[in-house]
Structure formats: structure tokens, C-alpha cells
# Entry
Amino acid sequence: METPYQNHIDKADFDHVYEPAEDSFLLIDALEKDLEFLKTKKPLLCLEVGSGSGVVITAFGMAFPGTLCFSTDINIKACVMTKSTAQRNNVIVETVNMDLASGFVNNKFDIVLFNPPYVVTDPEECKGNGIEASWAGGVKGREVIDRLLAVIPKILSPSGVFYILLIEENIPNEVIQIMKRHGYIAETVIQRKVRNERQLVLKFYKFANYD
Ligand SMILES: C[S@@+](CC[C@H](N)C(=O)[O-])C[C@H]1O[C@@H](n2cnc3c(N)ncnc32)[C@H](O)[C@@H]1O
# Structure
């Protein structure tokens, strides 16, 4: 998969929007690793929750020109940047400023992507919609993550696949158990140690529909 151009972005804009980092690129690497599998899914609709600068959904859109791509972010400036990153790379992404996927409950996406705010912080910190929303994850770094896990069954198509980046502190096994209760199987797609942080990308799908 190609890394999208980002040379249209003014460095100062990253004071307000998450600057792509190792986690962003690990998620792209996970999609690249799964590229042949993803092609077999022939995805019609893809959603990235919390798209930030837009590099992940744009990379996806570049690899899958036939897929209708959507993104959301709670930070309006991230939505604007996602739109411009998509345009810079000749990709169309419908971008919506909303909490998680709250406006999409009747939609069924074939692919859902999430590089969440995963840092363990005081719960009070994860109530904003500015740059702090990029990292502040509250207790176990899981407060925003867990809210999305609860809606995945409503927004993922029966044969859909959900990719999420986590760190060790998020207790990935608990996430796997939560998703198991919703009927999903988990697989680790890729993992990497970045300085002192172990990052991994998990994918979730329903067994009967995995082909
Ligand atoms: C770690 S950053 C990832 C940004 C981008 N996807 C990337 O990989 O570079 C997390 C993103 O999630 C967004 N976010 C946090 N809470 C959110 C929520 N409740 N609903 C939608 N987006 C949210 C943040 O504004 C931020 O852009």
C-alpha cells in the first residue's frame, strides 16, 4: 500500500490534529499485510473512526478505488484535514464530525478501522474534542475503545472485518473477551515494540462469514 502524500499539511496544523506516528503506520502495515485477504472481501463500504489527519483511510482508498470510504472524528479540525489529505491523493472520503459512529447505526460497513485514543489517563481527560482526544483514553486507555466495541455489531456487515490498534496497557485479552461475547473471533495481524510501548493490531470477524 502506498503512503499518502502529506505535503499539503502545514506543520502548525499538527498542534490541533494528531500527527501520523508509528501507530498510524502500523495500522496501514496491518492492512497491507492483509491486502490479499481484503481484496477477496471486495469491500463496498469502509469506515475509519477517528481519522485524524486522514492518512489511514486515504491509504485504504488508494488501494481500494472501488470502495466508498467514510471517516468520522470528534475533532472538527481532524475532519477538515482528512478531507484535504484525501483530495491531495485523489481519493474521495466522506468525512463526518461525530462521536464514534453514532450517526451510522443503520449502516453496515464491510471494513471498520480504528486507531483509538489508547493512552491511560484520568477519565476527565477523555471528554474533550481537541488534540487531547487523540490520546486520552481514561481508565486502562479503554474508555473510548469500549464505547466503540459496543456498537461494532450494529455497524459491521455480517461478513465484515474490524481492525483496531491497541497497546499492552489496554489489556488486549479483555478486548478479545468483550468481542467474543458479541460473537467475534480475534486474530493478531501485526505487532511491534515502539520504544517502551508494545503496539498490536487485532482484527475481528464472525467465523461463519470468514472466507
Ligand atoms: C490516535 S489518533 C489516530 C488518528 C489517525 N487515525 C491516525 O492513525 O493517525 C485518534 C483519533 O481519534 C479521534 N477521536 C477520539 N475520540 C473520538 C470519538 N469519540 N469519536 C470520534 N473520533 C474520536 C481523535 O480526535 C483522533 O483524531
